[in-house]
UniProtKB/TrEMBL annotation:
Metal-binding is among the record's keywords: yes
Family membership noted in the UniProt record: Belongs to the multicopper oxidase family.
Protein name per Swiss-Prot or TrEMBL: Plastocyanin-like domain-containing protein
UniProt keyword terms in alphabetical order: Copper, Metal-binding, Oxidoreductase
PROSITE patterns documented for this protein: MULTICOPPER_OXIDASE1 (PS00079), MULTICOPPER_OXIDASE2 (PS00080)
Length: 498
């Protein structure tokens, strides 16, 4: 049970309570939030740090998010995609922001952002979040992106970031000038603090050649909290900048930046080669019928998974290669067999637009084995040729497959683990679940518009699933006999959110 309403429990009603009892693991930087519609956009979230022992070294907690100055319900009801609304606050072709590789970021117009709940809008001098550093020592930051749509580039003026943890996994520390963070992701990093006052910057991952880049700031200081006068690191041909967690292979040469991609990260956690041959599953995130997975858009089952014989409520059409399938799409694996999940981002015309997707899996950690990226133009920095390692058997990409026939052998590969991984546009990430956790678990894009429109599936892990007690408040939810009602829709307009 992990709190997803309509799946593992009923939503907590107004005036009611629900007690979760759990073992605090894994150790690391996490966050919690509501999974009822898009309540987290209204602030129902918080940071959640798990220690294996009382921490010796003090640390700072960073929550970075985009903020739209309206309620989450307002964004949802005005959506032209889910409600055929008036598109208030939504971007059109002329004002859609794109990242450095030419990939559109979001269908929303960017408004502002917050660091630990504080930010500025229209140059107003509201107080910013501040952090008192200890100069001459390593200062630790634990950071999560708790926002909805826009990824950020994190930097601290005149300091190098040493990234040490991806969520719950210790990695071999990697130094970078800039760190990309997408919705749902968490990282720990250290800086060797200097004396003085410095800007901490969170800039939208937008191509700087397209105009002013939106930016959030916080103040780092030793004693006096005052406005810094420091400048962002300048990247030159003789002193190039390093960017960690790029969802693309590289930058335009004129920007003088080099990328560290997720498949270049090494773990410090002791693990051993997998002994059992894994099952292999292909999962494509695309816009062919709007935000979807393998040409399926998620619709909640008519009964939650704690009811008797729950899988009867997860039926989907057998063939979604030529029609719109909206249903409780479920992928089944077994507890005893490791599972390789090939997370791809294949797009075919006429819907040839892709987006980077931050994919989160409940109840598990992805082990990252390999990543594939499109080729890019070294003059413009924009993607040019899609990666062809993963292809599809049909235009809607209901059946992705490995194009070279023989799937790679990852028996001796040991990769870093995380609960959220960015799947690059026109590319893929190969992940492994070493020990699938029995139960019913959601996998979804953490970009809110994509999630709202149906870019989600349920991972069903067969095995020894603990029986979930049915409190009396749930008796009316699971009447007998259970009746199945199809949620399948084979017609309708196809809308797409970036």
């Amino acid at each position: 049970m992990d709190g997803v309403p309509g799946i593992t429990q009923h939503a907590i009603l107004s005036g009611h309570s629900f007690i979760h009892k759990f073992t605090a693991q894994p150790v690391g930087t996490h966050w919690y939030h509501s999974h009822y519609f898009n309540q987290r956009l209204d602030g129902i979230f918080g940071m959640f740090i798990v220690h294996d022992a009382p921490p010796v070294q003090p640390y700072f907690v960073l929550s970075v998010m985009d903020w739209y100055h309206v309620t989450a319900d307002h964004l949802k009801t005005t959506s032209p995609y889910t409600n055929q609304g008036p598109a208030e606050g939504y971007a059109g072709p002329s004002d859609t922001l794109s990242s450095q590789d030419g990939v559109p970021i979001s269908s929303l117009k960017y408004v502002s952002g917050l660091i630990n709940g504080r930010g500025r809008y229209n140059e107003e001098k509201f107080p910013l979040s501040d952090f008192m550093l200890v100069p001459g020592e390593e200062n630790v930051f634990r950071m999560c992106h708790t926002g909805a749509e826009f990824p950020y580039e994190i930097s601290i003026d005149e300091h190098l970031l040493s990234i040490s943890t991806m969520g719950a996994n210790l990695i071999v520390p990697m130094q970078a000038d800039f760190l990309f963070i997408y919705p749902g992701e968490c990282y720990d990093f250290n800086i060797l603090a200097k004396s003085g006052t410095f800007w901490l910057r969170a800039k939208v991952i937008q191509d700087p050649r397209a105009g002013d880049v939106p930016e959030i700031r916080a103040i780092l200081h030793n004693e006096v909290n005052k406005e810094p006068h420091t400048k962002e690191r300048s990247c030159t041909a003789s002193n190039k900048c390093i960017v960690f967690n790029c969802p693309f292979k590289g930058y335009a040469e004129q920007l003088h930046r080099n990328c560290i991609t997720v498949d270049q990260v090494a773990t410090r956690t002791e693990v051993f080669p997998a002994e059992v041959t894994p099952s292999v599953h292909f999962i494509n995130f695309g816009f062919q019928i709007g935000p979807s997975i393998n040409a399926h858009q998620w619709v909640n089952p008519v009964k939650p998974m704690f009811c008797k014989d729950p899988m009867q409520y997860t039926r989907c059409p057998k063939d979604c290669s030529s029609s719109v399938c909206r249903c409780p799409y479920t992928l089944t694996v077994t507890e005893a067999t490791p599972a390789i999940l090939v997370l791809s981002n294949v797009v075919y015309s006429p819907i040839d637009v892709a987006g980077h997707h931050s994919i989160h899996l409940h109840g598990h950690l992805f082990e990252i084995l390999q990543a594939g990226f499109p080729e890019f133009n070294k003059t413009t920095g924009h993607w040019s040729i899609a990666n062809h390692d993963v292809l599809c058997r049909d235009p809607l990409c209901a059946e992705p497959y490995w194009s070279s026939g023989q799937f790679p052998d990852f028996h001796n590969r040991i990769g870093p683990v995380t609960d959220t991984v960015v799947v690059p546009a026109y590319g893929y990430v190969i992940t492994r679940l070493r020990k699938p956790n029995p139960g019913y678990w959601m996998m979804h894009c953490h970009q809110e518009l994509h999630l709202d429109e149906g870019m989600m599936l349920q991972l069903y892990v067969e095995g020894n699933i603990p029986e979930i007690p049915d409190p009396s408040v749930y008796e009316w939810i699971c009447p007998e006999p259970a009746l199945y009602t199809s949620n399948e829709i084979h017609a309708g307009s196809i809308l797409s959110t970036i």
